[in-house]
Design goal:
The protein is of the alpha/beta class. The protein has a single domain, classed as OB fold (Dihydrolipoamide Acetyltransferase, E2P), CATH 2.40.50. The chain is 37% helix and 17% strand. It has helices at 60-71, 79-89, 94-117, 152-157, 166-173, 188-203, 217-234, 241-245, 282-289, and strands spanning 23-28, 31-34, 38-40, 42-44, 127-136, 142-148, 177-179, 181-182, 251-254, 259-261, 274-277, 292-293. The strands form 4 sheets. A 5-stranded mixed beta sheet has the order 8-11-9-10-12, covered by helices on one side. A hairpin with a 2-residue loop joins strand 1 and strand 2. Helix 3 crosses helix 5 and helix 5 (166-173) packs parallel to helix 6 (188-203). The longest helix has 24 residues, at 94-117. It starts with 22 loop residues before the first strand and ends with a strand.
Length: 294
């Protein structure tokens, strides 16, 4: 008899819910609680581990080499994006900076958890999760907004901003960049708050934005992939056009102008105004958001 799986995915992806999760407790005969990894929606903090379990600092030499290849015109990158990224890579410590910022972002999140989940009487609040329409990412992590679970009485006294999600609070602290990805976009009021928090953090140089050579988490991952592609080319490997360009895949929308840009033109949009769209979703996004070419 074939194995029965609780969660089935037509792409054949095993979800985190089927992976190695810690059993926590049972409340009744059909309600077990298990641990589950969560990917917080619409934000991206600096990496502590990437790629895989490696430390980002291990990429210092690779990213410095990538900067040299970009300068020499040997990397498959367009001129505008090359000019934007090269100064951030040539320092020789881009990976170390990413790792240090990731550690500080983790500390900030830990502090926010302690502050927001502790009631005035010292007891601990639960957390409230709101998942996306597509509940799991390609790594099997639950996609969600995470917030303190305030009581009805507490919520009645708090403004929308005062009962903010941890997602928004991390952006406001400067330790996470905004990263809304279509179609999992916040409601209009929440999107406005996310954009305003991102702009304020950048303008006031809070958190990671205090360092002008900061790579956002998604830029760091992108550059690690670009190094791998360029390294193959430098070794004489023949790559297809798709392989050469696969290191950057998402289109970028400016939420203030409705303009949509090709993946390598994302830098033309202010970080806090970016909405990203996977290539498979571009047609749907253009129609539903009434987008125009950038």
């Amino acid at each position: 008899m074939s194995q029965v799986k609780i969660f089935w995915d037509p792409q054949g992806v095993e979800l985190n819910a089927l992976g190695d999760n810690e059993y926590l407790r049972t409340t009744d005969g059909d309600t077990p609680f298990v641990s589950m990894s969560i990917r917080m929606l619409s934000i991206d903090a600096p990496e502590v581990h990437y790629p895989g379990t490696q430390k980002p600092s291990k990429q210092d030499a690779n990213l410095k080499q990538l900067a040299d290849w970009i300068q020499q015109g040997k990397a498959p990158i367009q001129d505008g994006l090359a000019e934007y990224l090269q100064p951030k890579l040539v320092t020789g410590n881009a990976g170390t900076l990413q790792e240090n910022q990731g550690t500080q972002a983790t500390a900030e999140f830990t502090k926010l958890i302690s502050e927001k989940l502790t009631r005035p009487d010292g007891t601990t609040r639960r957390v409230f999760l709101r998942t996306a329409n597509q509940p799991f990412d390609q790594n099997g992590r639950l996609l969600a907004y995470v917030a303190p679970n305030y009581s009805d009485a507490e919520r009645a006294k708090l403004s929308r901003k005062e009962r903010a999600t941890f997602n928004l609070l991390l952006v406001d602290s400067g330790w996470a960049a905004t990263l809304p990805i279509y179609p999992s976009i916040p409601s209009y009021p929440d999107l406005v708050m996310l954009q305003e928090a991102g702009k304020d953090a950048l303008d006031k140089k809070r958190g990671a934005w205090a360092e002008p050579l900061t790579l956002t988490g998604y830029e760091f991952r992108m550059c690690v992939k670009l190094f791998a592609v360029t390294d193959k080319l430098m070794r004489g490997e023949k790559l297809s056009s798709a392989q050469k360009s696969g290191w950057v895949e998402r289109y970028c929308v400016d939420m203030t102008t409705r303009e949509i840009y090709y993946p390598q033109d994302y830098y033309r949009v202010a970080p806090y105004n970016r909405i990203f769209v996977w290539s498979a979703d571009v047609g749907d996004a253009v129609a539903k958001m009434n987008l125009v070419p950038g």
